[in-house]
Amino acid sequence: MRLRGFLVGLMAASTLVAPPLSTPPLSAAAPSPALSGLTDAVAGRLALADAVAASKWASGAAIDDPAREQIVLETVSQLALDLDPAYVRTVFRDQIEASKTVQRGLFAQWRLPGQTAPAATPDLSAVRAAINELNVAIVDELAASRGIVTTLRCPPELVASTTRTAADLGFDPLHVAALVQAGASVCAVSTGSS
């Protein structure tokens, strides 16, 4: 919980302090933070929460879908291979909750006077297929980042990567908060099953 509070505080501070207009944008030549692949995959998954929300809004479906959530958790546990399945499940619980944070935030916006939800189809199969691909990418990135996520380097690297990803994608405050929430369990004491 302390790590999550630390990350939320750093992300909040970084989003509240706008750089001077003369500050050049991050260039392609600037080195990427160590966990950028992971935060990019997580952000891609979060970006799909908008389509999920629109579909659920159109169909009247509930945001919470325990059956689907269980399928996701079981699937990623099987993908874990040389990672601790409990660690992977915990990280993905955060992914699911962050997605629901975005969905709830969008529902709240769409309920405001003068606001409308985007047109959407109630069929989520294409979006779920994309989410499944990103789930695999996230597990792969967790495995590739094993040497970082189990060390004290993880929190500052995660903050740097999250900040860069959010800026690169132009995330609004709702999506930035969800991105921070999605990374809450990434920094772990142990991810190996040995």
Automatic annotation (TrEMBL):
Pfam families: CM_2. GO terms for biological process: chorismate metabolic process; salicylic acid biosynthetic process. NCBIfam families: CM_mono2 (TIGR01806), PRK09269.1 (NF006741). It is an enzyme of class 5 (isomerase). Its EC number is 5.4.99.5. PROSITE patterns: CHORISMATE_MUT_2. GO terms for molecular function: chorismate mutase activity. It comes from Gordonia amicalis. This is chorismate mutase. Pathway: Metabolic intermediate biosynthesis; prephenate biosynthesis; prephenate from chorismate: step 1/1. Keywords: Isomerase, Signal. Residues 17-107 form the Chorismate mutase domain. InterPro entries: Chorismate_II_sf, Chorismate_mutase-related, Chorismate_mutase_periplasmic, CM_dom_sf, CM_II_prokaryot. Residues 1-28 form the signal peptide.
